[in-house]
Amino acid sequence: MSVCIYPGSFNPIHNAHIEAAKFVRQEFNFDKIVFIPAFKPPHKDSKIFDSDNAFHRLNMVELAVKDYPYFDVSAIEYTRNKPSYSYDTISQLYQILNPEDKINFIIGSDAFRYIQSWYRAEDLKKLVHFILFIREDNFNENEFLKLKSLGYSYSLMRMPFINISSSKVREMIIHNDNICDIVPLKVAEYIKQNNVYKI
User: Fold this and answer.
1) Radius of gyration of the chain measured on its C-alpha atoms
2) Rounded to whole angstroms, how far apart are CA atoms 172 and 8?
3) In whole angstroms, what is the distance from residue 175 CA to residue 157 CA?
4) Which residue(s) pair with 66 in the sheet?
5) What are phi and psi for residue 78, nearest 5 degrees?
6) What is the pTM of this model?
7) Which SS3 state, helix, strand or coil, does residue 79 take?
């Protein structure tokens, strides 16, 4: 079985996340896309990413993907209950999945730009093939050629840019704007019912 992982904070998960995963599966013919919500992303504000936030994010991802038979959710980082380093997660997944080839890893171009600053990046690059989706409307691939020359293996996912961000969704929630067009309906209902992101 061919598997690709989709790690992220998903704070909250929105339609661009879903469309990116659908595009990757179709473009690269993976059997499964596994979403992995981070427990406490090491590069994010720890005041925002507390235990309650992690619980809600995991629930929202599960709601968002439950109707797609080719999507799964892993709580591997949530159950670890500490800051989520991709190297640790990937190393553990190799033991669980025992893949025949490198694990594929969906990542946004904005995050990949700083991949060398990640924990044990030199070791991580040996374990994964990155699938890079473009998170900017003025993307320049030449910026990433140096990373390829340094041994970072990646493929570009050439899907149309969708200008949705989790920070924008949170801002809309605070201002009581309608988010039903940019997040899955079950996620929008969960956010309302559980008063997520309200100050």
Assistant:
1) 16
2) 21
3) 33
4) none
5) -65, -45
6) 0.93
7) helix
User: What sign has the CA pseudo-torsion 175, 178, 181, 186?
Assistant: positive
* Domain 3-162, architecture per CATH: 3-Layer(aba) Sandwich (3.40)
Beginning with the edge strand found earlier in the chain, give each strand of the sheet holding 32-37 in spatial order: 71-73, 32-37, 3-8, 103-108, 128-133, 154-157
> CB-based contacts of 50: which residues, under 8 Å, 6+ apart?
none
CA-closest candidate to residue 191, choices 181, 182, 179: 179
Name, in order, each residue with C-beta under 8 angstroms of 46's C-beta and a sequence gap of 6 or more: 40
Q: State both tokens at 69.
A: 């038979």
Place of tokens 């201002």: 175
Q: Which of 66, 70, 73 minimizes the C-alpha distance to 10?
A: 73
Backbone φ, ψ for residue 54 (5° rounding):
-60, -40
The residue extents of the domains of the chain are 3-162
- In tens, the pLDDT along 47-80 reads 677 889 999 999 999 999 999 999 999 999 999 8
